[in-house]
Amino acid sequence: MNRKSQLSAEYMVILSLFFSVLLIIAVIDLEILSSGGERFRITRAKHALDELASAAELVYQEGRGAQIKVFITMPRNVLGTSVSGQTMTINISAMEANRSMFRRLDFNVSGTIPTESGAYWLEVESFGTYVNISNINTTK
C-alpha cells in the first residue's frame, strides 16, 4: 500500500513540474506575441504618415488644384494626430510608452488625420502655397 502512495506522490510531482514549465512557456509566448502586435501598430502608423507625406509632396509639386485620394489604415491606441506648419504627427500608445511619429515637409500642410482605428480615404489637395488633408469617407 505504501508503494502505491509513493508512486502517486511521484506522479503528482512530475505532473506539477510539467505544468509549471508549460505555464512559463505560455507566458513567454504571450509576451512575444504582444510585443509583435505593438510593433505592427507602430509600423502601421509610420506607413500612414509615409503615404500622406508622399501624396502631399506630389500634389504640392503639381501646383494649385492638384489632388489625390490616399487610402490609409489607422492602428488602435492612437492618442492624437496633428497636421500643421510643415509637420504631420501621429501619437500612439505602444510598447508601454507613448510614441510620436512625424514627417517634416518643405511646405505648409493643414487638415486632419483620423484618430480612430480603421481604414480611411483621405483627400490631399494643393492650394498653391500649402497642402490640405481631409477625410472624405470611412470604410470601417
How are the elements arranged and paired?
Elements: H1 2-62, E1 67-74, E2 78-84, E3 87-94, E4 97-104, E5 108-111, E6 118-126, E7 130-138
Parallel strand pairs: 5-7
Antiparallel strand pairs: 1-6, 2-3, 3-4, 6-7
How would you explain this protein's 3D organization?
The structure is a single chain. This protein has one domain (2-138). 44% of the residues lie in helices and 38% in strands. It is built from one helix and seven strands. Strand 6 and strand 7 form a beta hairpin. The protein starts with a helix and ends with a strand.
Provide a concise account of the structure shown.
By secondary structure, the chain is α+β, with helices and mostly antiparallel strands. The protein is 44% helix and 38% strand. It has one helix at 2-62, and strands at residues 67-74, 78-84, 87-94, 97-104, 108-111, 118-126, 130-138.
Label this structure with key terms:
140 residues, alpha+beta, four-stranded mixed beta sheet, three-stranded antiparallel beta sheet, 1 helix, 44% helix
What integer is the average pLDDT? 86
Order of helices and strands: HEEEEEEE
N-end to C-end Cα span: 67 Å
- Which sheet architecture does the biggest sheet show? 4 strands, mixed
Shape: rod-shaped
Task: Enumerate the spans where pLDDT stays under 50 for 5 or more consecutive residues.
Answer: none
Class inferred from helices and paired strands: alpha+beta
The figure for the number of domains is 1
Helix run count: 1
Strand order in the sheet with the most strands: 1-6-7-5
